[in-house]
Write a structure and sequence with these properties.
Helix content: 55-70%
Number of domains: 2
Largest sheet: 4 strands, mixed
Structural class: mainly alpha
Distance between the termini: 28 Å
Radius of gyration: 31 Å
Strand order of the largest sheet: 2-1-3-4
Order of helices and strands: HHEEHEHEHHEEHHHHHHHHHHH
Length: 441
């Protein structure tokens, strides 16, 4: 068995047996599946109900505000002062005061004892606007029924037209979510496991155990074994996260969200909201149409390509940056001394994270192209671009440059590692590192 293989096994098994690895492997899927299920579950729960006391001095909305699922309006024949005085002795949660000069000031006042929140405030505002809108139409002799019938909702379905004439479905919002989420995971994993390499090198150096190891293996072999071993730890944890997250999400969907499992079932479509004979429920058709379109958009995503790209850029980005992290760890005596060298290494990752937010708005622009080709930013940016569609040659060029740069940076970092791993008690500067790089002995 080669010496590098022995080092890889040592790094791998010494980490996967740690309690921290086991705990994070279990907690990670619970957190991820919770982020998928809990928001949907919370949205289905009954929200706090608001009982609004309306004091309408304008006489424009009195009795016309429509009750909602969690908002009810009442119109007691009392003054504002009486309502304010008795508010805490009633079941009302707030007082909605409509001033006499509403049309002039365009302002209403909500006096509350339980904070209504932004969504509730927006619904109240919208309800007042709807009443005023209908009043204006009636004053102008316009039939409200005809106005409602004239409203035709439209759902835009986006498709990318390829040069071969084939139309490919594309959901911009979904692409942005998948791309940015994948990029963020790459960003986090590179930092998480790259820093582990640096810390491992520093620990071995300060404990002087590296002097014993170096006597039997070359510094480059030690660095390569450590990098690959920790990469396998990260890959193992990532695969376990995917499997366990999907399993927990499936259990959650079958139990907590079981009422939504048959959304695309034709029987459910026909029986969920019964209509009178000859009556059409346009809102029902819109909801199911949108759900069907969303299902088609999900089916159109090439998850195999995304998974392959994610694994490649996770490993490629990690290997590239961990080589530099290992070089930094070998050049210093403590983690506190790494700060001066960390900035140049981590800056491309930070820049790619910031740029990703703009590239999502223009995934085919020049900034997106160059950042997805440059190896130091491509692991994050290419994952952001992929859901929108990337030409094969750009994808291949990006992968090739990342591999070549990783090999070069590993060779470069090996020269620093070879000298720095046995250097103690000396503050290292950039000039000193340059001398190590130029040293050919």
């Amino acid at each position: 068995m080669s010496k590098i293989s022995i080092i890889i096994q040592r790094e791998y098994f010494s980490r996967v047996k740690k309690k921290s690895f086991i705990i994070m492997t279990i907690l990670g899927p619970i957190l991820f599946s919770g982020l998928m299920i809990v928001p949907v579950w919370l949205a289905t729960q009954e929200q706090e109900k608001h009982f609004i006391e309306v004091i309408d001095d304008s006489k424009l909305v009195d009795g016309f505000l429509k009750n909602g699922k969690n908002i009810s309006y009442d119109y007691p024949p009392i003054s504002l002062e009486e309502a304010k005085r008795d508010l805490y002795s009633t079941d009302y949660t707030a007082i909605l005061w409509i001033p006499e000069n509403l049309l002039t000031t365009k302002k209403a006042v909500l006096l509350f004892k339980k904070h209504p929140g932004m969504m509730v405030q927006e619904r109240i505002r919208s309800a007042i606007e709807d009443v005023l809108y209908e009043n204006q139409l009636e004053e102008q002799g316009i039939d409200l029924a005809k106005v409602d019938a004239s409203h035709i909702p439209v759902n835009i379905v986006t498709e990318k037209q390829t040069e071969s004439g084939v139309a490919e479905r594309s959901n911009t919002g979904m692409n942005m979510a998948i791309g940015f989420g994948s990029g963020i995971l790459i960003y986090i994993f590179i930092f998480l496991y790259g820093v582990q390499v640096m810390r491992g090198v520093i620990e071995e150096k300060t404990s002087r155990i590296v002097e014993v190891i170096i006597s039997s293996v070359k510094p480059f072999q030690l660095m390569m074994g450590k990098i690959v071993g920790i990469a396998m730890v990260g890959l193992t944890q990532f695969v376990l996260w995917i499997v366990l997250t999907m399993a927990l999400a499936g259990i959650g969907q079958a139990t907590i969200l079981k009422d939504f499992a048959d959304l695309d079932n034709p029987v459910l479509k026909q029986n969920t909201v019964p209509n009178m004979p000859g009556q059409v429920n346009p809102q029902q058709n819109i909801n199911y149409s949108e759900a069907a379109e969303l299902f088609k958009d999900i089916q159109s995503i090439n998850f195999a390509q995304l998974l392959f790209a994610f694994l490649f850029y996770f490993l490629g980005g990690y290997l590239l940056y961990s080589a530099m992290f290992a070089a930094v760890g070998s050049a210093v005596d403590s983690e506190a001394d790494t700060q001066q060298f960390m900035m140049p290494i981590t800056m491309p990752l930070v820049i790619s994270f910031i740029a990703a937010q703009f590239i999502m708005q223009n995934p085919e622009g020049q900034l997106a192209f160059w950042f997805s080709i440059i190896p130091f930013t491509s692991p994050v940016i290419m994952m952001v671009r992929l859901p929108f569609g990337v030409p094969v040659w750009e994808f291949a060029l990006s992968m090739g440059l990342l591999i070549v740069t990783f090999i070069f940076m590993t060779w470069l970092a090996g020269k620093i590692y070879r000298t720095g791993i046995l250097m103690y008690g000396k503050k290292i500067s950039y000039r000193e590192l340059w001398k190590w790089l130029r040293y050919s002995g």
